[in-house]
């Protein structure tokens, strides 16, 4: 037998272990290849509408390649751990370092080469579907076009990755001595010890973390009054903090709750010694340490897949609501003091809406400018506007909010968020004077009432407003509420081009709707491919964990069969163990997915409806169940095949 034949036999003998790695690598190559074909497609760069897709692919290609590198490194580390006994025996028989490096290099590159070829072939098969969907999204014909460059680009990218892993993997084994390699693979796992105090602390921490997340969602107004939490919320770091907390909760659930659960089951003698319960509970107890790490990794990856897909899906469904939240109203017309065509332009808009059967409501209010409102973001000076109590109440009712009542020098401060990530408190003023009158600021509200006009508004009492009205230039704001505003795309473009050339500014939500809808469709479609990669990686970790100790499991069931354990009972034990191993990560990931979506949309919880999230969870759940059925069948078949060889 030659050295290459020996390496090939190693691959054939460990085919079941390589299978999960091969499948996951093939999927990664397929997705990367499809994205590469799309990125280098000449039609993508010729059509202006494809710019969002090319920019997205520019960011996604290196990200997906980096994820593939991390996954392959982790997978090889897990696979090498299983083969430590084999490597120890080879070193005991006198294999040289150079031969060992050549052996690992040949095995890894062989599997990598087959994965790359398979991934490219699958990519060719699904690329036509990919371009068909892209053509539907962007509404322009985009036929399948293939050049040799994406093939060579994908091949070189991933063969380099596999060569890198092949070079690094032998060093992880060479650093271990022969005794460690031979004994580590046979070392029996022990059930981790736990104490009542440690268990209580773990459960308390989990409850506190969950409680903080729920409190942060339900009490935003209270937290905005605290400087640190206000900064967290407006900078977006509270989202990262929430994700970190969920990751810690996930680890604690498996490291503490699972250990406590097994201990309680073992202490319940009536249940523990009932039929075959002793066998599967003891098996879980002795493999608890390894299970915690793998279950934790799988749960995190499944959560990423579910949350990423669900967030993109709901963003696509609620595109109109998100745009309207930003624009507040479908059409907003701001007239500067020099505008002499206000009535003519408003009549033009009204006539079009009435002629085309649109229902609408309109409001017209004056704003007094303490600074230039035309381009407030162009200078460092904070832009400030004034409006009367009665006009503010009209605007509040128009937007479906509560009116207020002011008298004398009382004033309500409205802060619009600081034109960026700065919290409203950075723009608040403790003292403010209008003319020669010092205002008595009775409160501050960061709710948006007017979009992109001023950074700070002061609502004055009607009497004070009349006194200072003549001292400041008057801008006029006209806003429209239109139920079917999403169909006003062409008209919005028309009035924007027509009116924005003069001393006025028109802002329309419909102008951005189609572009945003296409963007969200694209994100959802492309993101689904990325989610599949993460999901395949998650279930591959489960596969590695199950088949890492298949030889020991075979021997265990063979010995149990010798003392009378029936095959029906073996099936029941395996099914329970696999169910416990497969479904808790998915259940926890599903709960955390809904929490993440609610947390991301905490200001508009209705944009993360449970039924829409459930649709995504159901699709991934069906995939998980099918994978469970396949793995269970394969696992039982391998166990029984070994028993049949021993004629048990």
Secondary structure layout:
Blueprint: H1 3-13, H2 15-39, H3 42-46, H4 51-82, H5 84-92, H6 97-138, H7 148-174, H8 178-184, H9 196-218, H10 220-223, H11 227-235, H12 237-267, H13 269-272, H14 277-286, H15 288-317, H16 319-327, E1 331-335, H17 342-355, E2 361-369, E3 384-388, H18 389-398, E4 410-415, E5 433-434, E6 437-438, E7 440-445, E8 456-460, H19 462-468, E9 474-481, H20 489-499, E10 504-508, H21 510-548, H22 550-562, H23 567-600, H24 610-645
Parallel strand pairs: 3-8, 4-7
Antiparallel strand pairs: 1-9, 1-10, 2-3, 2-9, 4-8, 5-6
Question: Can you describe this structure?
Answer:
- With 648 residues, the chain is an alpha+beta fold.
- The chain folds into three domains: 1-187, no CATH class; 189-320 and 513-648, no CATH class; 324-512, no CATH class.
- It contains 24 helices and ten strands.
- The protein has helices spanning 3-13, 15-39, 42-46, 51-82, 84-92, 97-138, 148-174, 178-184, 196-218, 220-223, 227-235, 237-267, 269-272, 277-286, 288-317, 319-327, 342-355, 389-398, 462-468, 489-499, 510-548, 550-562, 567-600, 610-645; strands at 331-335, 361-369, 384-388, 410-415, 433-434, 437-438, 440-445, 456-460, 474-481, 504-508.
- Strands 7-4-8-3-2-9-1-10 form an eight-stranded mixed beta sheet, sandwiched between helices. The chain has a two-stranded antiparallel ribbon with strand order 5-6.
- α2 packs antiparallel against α21 and α12 packs across α15.
- The longest helix is centred in the first third of the chain and has 42 residues, at 97-138.
- The protein is elongated and about 100 Å long.
């Amino acid at each position: 037998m030659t050295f290459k034949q020996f390496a090939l036999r190693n691959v054939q003998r460990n085919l079941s272990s390589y299978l999960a790695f091969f499948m996951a690598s093939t999927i990664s190559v397929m997705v990367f290849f499809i994205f590469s074909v799309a990125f280098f497609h000449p039609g993508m760069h010729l059509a202006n509408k494809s710019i969002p897709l090319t920019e997205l692919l520019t960011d996604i290609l290196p990200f997906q390649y980096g994820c593939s590198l991390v996954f392959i490194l982790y997978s090889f580390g897990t696979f090498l751990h299983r083969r430590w006994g084999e490597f120890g025996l080879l070193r005991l028989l006198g294999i040289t370092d150079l031969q060992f490096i050549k052996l690992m290099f040949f095995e890894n590159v062989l599997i990598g080469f087959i994965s790359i070829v398979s991934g490219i072939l699958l990519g060719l098969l699904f690329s036509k579907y990919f371009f068909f969907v892209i053509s539907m999204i962007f509404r322009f014909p985009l036929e399948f076009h293939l050049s040799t460059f994406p093939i060579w680009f994908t091949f070189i990218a991933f063969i380099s990755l596999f060569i890198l892993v092949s070079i690094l993997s032998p060093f992880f084994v060479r650093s271990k001595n022969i005794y460690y390699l031979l004994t580590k693979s046979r070392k029996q796992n022990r059930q981790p010890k736990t104490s009542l105090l440690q268990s209580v602390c773990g459960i308390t921490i989990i409850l506190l973390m969950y409680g903080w997340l729920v409190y942060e969602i339900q009490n935003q107004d209270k937290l905005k009054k605290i400087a640190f939490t206000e900064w967290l919320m407006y900078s977006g770091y509270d989202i990262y903090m929430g994700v970190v907390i969920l990751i810690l909760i996930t680890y604690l659930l498996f490291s503490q709750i699972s250990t406590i659960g097994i201990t309680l089951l073992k202490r319940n003698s009536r249940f523990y010694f009932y039929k075959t319960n002793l066998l599967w509970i003891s098996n879980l107890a002795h493999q608890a340490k390894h299970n915690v790490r793998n279950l934790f990794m799988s749960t995190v990856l499944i959560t990423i897949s579910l949350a990423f897909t669900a967030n993109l899906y709901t963003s696509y469904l609620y595109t109109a609501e998100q745009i309207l939240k930003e624009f507040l109203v479908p059409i907003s017309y701001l007239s500067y003091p020099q505008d002499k065509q206000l009535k003519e332009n408003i009549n033009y808009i009204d006539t079009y809406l009435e002629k085309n059967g649109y229902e609408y409501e309109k409001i017209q209010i004056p704003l007094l400018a303490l600074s230039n409102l035309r381009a407030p973001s162009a200078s460092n000076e904070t832009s400030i506007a004034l409006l009367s109590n009665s006009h503010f109440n009209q605007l509040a009712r128009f937007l479906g909010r509560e009116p207020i009542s002011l008298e004398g020098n009382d004033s309500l401060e409205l802060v619009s968020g600081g034109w960026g990530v700065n919290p409203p408190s950075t723009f608040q003023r403790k003292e403010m004077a209008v003319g020669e009158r010092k205002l008595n600021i009775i409160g501050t509200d960061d709710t948006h009432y007017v979009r992109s006009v001023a950074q700070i508004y002061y609502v004055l009492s009607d009497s004070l407003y009349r006194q200072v009205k003549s001292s400041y230039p008057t801008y006029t704001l006209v806003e429209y509420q239109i139920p079917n505003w999403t169909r006003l795309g062409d008209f919005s473009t028309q009035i924007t081009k027509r009116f924005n050339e003069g001393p006025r500014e028109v802002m329309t939500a419909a102008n951005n709707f189609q572009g945003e809808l296409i963007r969200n469709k694209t994100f959802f479609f492309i993101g689904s491919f990325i989610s599949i990669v993460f999901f395949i990686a998650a279930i591959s970790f489960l596969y590695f964990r199950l088949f890492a100790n298949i030889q020991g499991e075979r021997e265990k069931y063979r010995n149990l069969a010798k003392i009378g354990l029936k095959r029906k009972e073996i099936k029941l034990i395996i099914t329970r163990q696999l169910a416990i191993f497969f479904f808790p990560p998915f259940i926890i990931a599903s709960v955390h997915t809904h929490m993440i979506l609610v947390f991301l949309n905490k200001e508009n919880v209705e944009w993360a409806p449970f039924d829409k999230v459930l649709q995504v969870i159901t699709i991934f759940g069906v995939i998980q169940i099918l994978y469970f059925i396949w793995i269970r069948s394969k696992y039982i078949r391998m166990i029984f095949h070994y028993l049949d060889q021993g004629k048990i």
